[in-house]
UniProtKB/TrEMBL annotation:
Domain spans labelled Orn/Lys/Arg decarboxylases family 1 pyridoxal-P attachment site: 351-365
Organism the protein comes from: Simiduia aestuariiviva
Highest classification ranks of the organism: Bacteria, Pseudomonadati, Pseudomonadota, Gammaproteobacteria, Cellvibrionales
Required cofactor(s): pyridoxal 5'-phosphate
Keyword Nuclease in record: no
InterPro entries, sorted: Orn/Lys/Arg_deCO2ase_major_dom, Orn_Lys_Arg_decarboxylase-I, Prn/Lys/Arg_de-COase_C, PyrdxlP-dep_Trfase, PyrdxlP-dep_Trfase_major
Pfam families named among the record's database cross-references: OKR_DC_1, OKR_DC_1_C
Gene Ontology MF annotations: arginine decarboxylase activity
Keyword Lyase belongs to the record: yes
Keywords annotated in UniProt: Decarboxylase, Lyase, Pyridoxal phosphate
Recorded family membership: Belongs to the Orn/Lys/Arg decarboxylase class-I family.
Full protein name: Arginine decarboxylase
Domain of life: Bacteria
Length: 641
């Protein structure tokens, strides 16, 4: 039985003891509840300590004894420390502060403690409900015969086949019998939710602090495209971090918008691409007053996150909406060390890869709409989602979003406290027992952003192995081949570990053992390496959409491309070395000699990388560029906007 603590904050010890004792008696008689409620009381000065106990799930504030200043301070403490839990007002009859949003109000004079108990229990039941996941389980356990899609019919086509039964057993029966069809009406429709999916999305909005939340089963790549399709029109300007996910670049092609690119800061020592300097963001806003949208990624792949509030406030002062890609930060709301989140800082739209750090399946994502969005057109936003959503969604994925939300709403603080402790344990071990270095925010940030209030999500642990004399690609391979450990990523001299809510003590022990043995092979002499920098972006000459959809012509990329006929041509495709995944050029951009030299270097010298956007024909690399005629028309189109 799950145990949840209800804490009464009161300065009246006699009232607190009576309230707690009466409710304990009611709770002891409730033997059928799946949740066991435990009761205690404390003074206002002790509230913070109670909030740092993960089992604390409801805080009741005694208006009668606290008084207005103390009541307000306690309310703020609850919201700032544990935004996900319920805050109940015990009132002496006055109306609560309009600025304070309590989950429930109970009369301080209520003598029927059974009513009080059931009211508190109901709050927890509502928060821990999983409407869609429960409906899915109910349907599966009802064992209905399937005369609808999908064709495997709850897995029967595999379980009855001698050739496929091994795969059926490997995946498990529920992988197949939860793979259902829109024909099952009791499971609602992701395209037009009215029952259990809508209820689940409403619970998610409350949990993550949004006005509206939408489930997406095509990943945050699709979530970003949906938001841009809703906000942007042909020729609209969008200010965007160059180091954004490629889905944002794709969305600008699809919408016909005009990008104003912001150059990211770069730590050349480690090959880490970080936030855009705040001064550059403000300057871009000043120089582009007609821009409709600002897009930033926070936190970055390496865990660097902006001081968002002043940036968002400045954008809003200029009537620019803000989309924050929080693909790597869905967990941020559930521990005070990680807050504020983008929504709490005032972002208009936020996208979450719920699967990256939480317990949802891969591709499971959410779009959150902020409380401050003006004139939000929900029906049109729904239609934008439907343009990108399959009419045959994976129901197990939807259920995983539902239960991932439940987990964070009820035990998010506890699991994140454990996760953060594991991350710190790994850092401490590296520093004390290896010649390697655990990198902090000042190590990862370029000097251009070191006064911008950048913080580090410490669940991303980046270790410099180059300082100990080892190559990071080699360490990555040894960890995988010799110790069965797969890291998140590596640069030339660093490896990055993603410490998640699924990290266990045993995994940490095995990692320590592996690092200890690898450290014994290190020379201790720092590795010398010249980092391949990304050249500055050149001018956008043609709308990305126009350039991408142009027929174009394919021109060979030679090793001496910087001196070739490609110089000055307008590129049709995005060219991206991966890793790090940052575009060298985007559609509509002019190819400079510097950019072409960098592309050639990556293609001919870096066989360890993927080069997206470079076409290989009969073993020879080609780049697609606009024809002179199409380029002239495209330039005229952009000039007319």
């Amino acid at each position: 039985m799950a145990e949840c603590r209800v804490v009464l904050v009161t300065e009246d010890a006699s009232f607190g003891s009576r309230w707690v004792n009466e409710l304990k008696q009611v709770a002891e008689a409730d033997t059928s509840s799946p949740i066991r409620l435990c009761f205690s009381h404390c003074k206002a000065a002790q509230l913070k300590a109670q909030l740092y106990l993960g089992e604390t799930q409801i805080v009741a504030l005694d208006e009668g004894s606290l008084g207005e200043p103390s009541l307000d301070a306690c309310y703020d403490e609850v919201r700032n420390s544990r935004a996900e839990i319920d805050c109940i007002l015990l009132t002496d009859g006055k109306m609560p502060d309009e600025d304070a949003e309590f989950e429930g109000v109970i009369s301080r004079a209520e003598s029927n403690y059974g009513v009080v108990y059931r009211t508190l229990r109901r709050e927890l039941f509502e928060r821990t409900a999983t409407p869609f996941a429960d409906a899915l389980k109910e349907y599966v356990y009802a064992a209905k015969d399937s005369w609808h899609t999908p064709g495997h019919s709850s897995g029967d086509s595999l379980s009855s086949s001698p050739w496929l039964v091994d795969f059926y057993r490997f995946m498990g029966e529920h992988m197949f019998n939860t793979d259902l069809s829109v024909s099952v009406k009791m499971l609602d429709s992701l395209m037009e939710p009215v029952t259990v999916i809508r209820q689940a999305q409403n619970l998610a909005a409350k949990t993550f602090g949004a006005r509206h939340t939408y489930y997406v089963t095509n990943g945050t790549s699709t979530s970003n495209k949906v938001v841009l399709q809703y906000l942007m029109r042909h020729g609209d300007k969008v200010i965007v971090d160059r180091n954004c996910h490629k889905s944002v670049h794709h969305a600008m092609i699809m919408s016909g918008s005009v990008p104003v690119y912001l150059e990211s800061s770069v730590n050349q020592t480690y090959g880490v691409y970080g936030p855009v300097p705040k001064a550059k963001i403000f300057a871009a806003i000043d120089e582009n007053p007609q821009a409709r949208l600002l897009i930033l990624t926070s936190c970055t792949y390496d865990g660097l996150r902006y001081d968002l509030k002043p940036i968002i406030d400045y954008a809003h002062e200029h009537d620019i909406q803000v989309l924050i890609d929080e693909a790597w930060y869905a967990h941020g709301r559930f521990h005070p060390q990680l807050r504020p989140t983008a929504l709490e800082a005032g972002a208009d739209f936020v996208t979450h890869s719920t699967h990256k750090m939480l317990s949802a399946f891969s591709q499971a994502s959410m779009i959150h709409v902020g409380h401050g969005v003006k004139n939000f057109d929900a029906p049109r936003f729904r239609e934008d989602i439907n343009m990108h959503t399959s009419t045959s969604p994976q129901y197990g994925m939807i259920a995983s979003l539902d239960v991932a939300r439940k987990q964070m709403s009820i035990e998010g603080f506890s699991v994140l406290a454990r996760t953060l402790n594991f991350a710190q344990e790994i850092r401490d071990y590296v520093e004390a027992n290896t010649p390697f270095k655990s990198l902090g925010v000042n190590d990862l940030c370029d000097v251009s952003v070191q006064n911008d209030g950048i913080k580090l999500d410490t669940t991303k642990v980046t270790i410099d192995v180059g300082c100990g004399g080892l190559s990071a690609p080699k360490v990555q391979a040894v960890l995988f081949n010799d110790y069965g450990i797969q890291v998140e990523k590596n640069t030339h001299n660093t490896i990055t570990l993603l410490v998640t809510i699924g990290t266990t003590e045993s995994k940490v022990l095995r990692l320590k053992q592996a690092l200890h043995k690898i450290a014994q092979t290190a020379s201790g002499k720092p590795m010398e390496y010249s980092h391949q920098s990304i050249p500055a972006l050149s001018k956008i000459r043609v709308l990305p959409r126009t350039a991408y959809f142009a027929d174009g012509e394919k021109v060979a990329l030679t090793q001496d491309a910087g001196n070739s006929d490609l110089v000055g041509r307008v590129v049709c495709d995005e060219i991206v070395p991966y890793p790090p995944g940052i575009p060298l050029v985007v559609p509509g951009q002019e190819l400079s000699a510097e950019i072409l030299a960098a592309i050639a270097n990556y293609v001919y010298e870096r066989k360890d990388l993927e080069m997206h956007g470079v076409q290989v024909i009969n073993g020879e690399p080609f780049i697609r560029v606009m024809t002179p005629e199409a380029e002239a028309r495209g330039k005229a189109e952009l000039a007319a906007l």
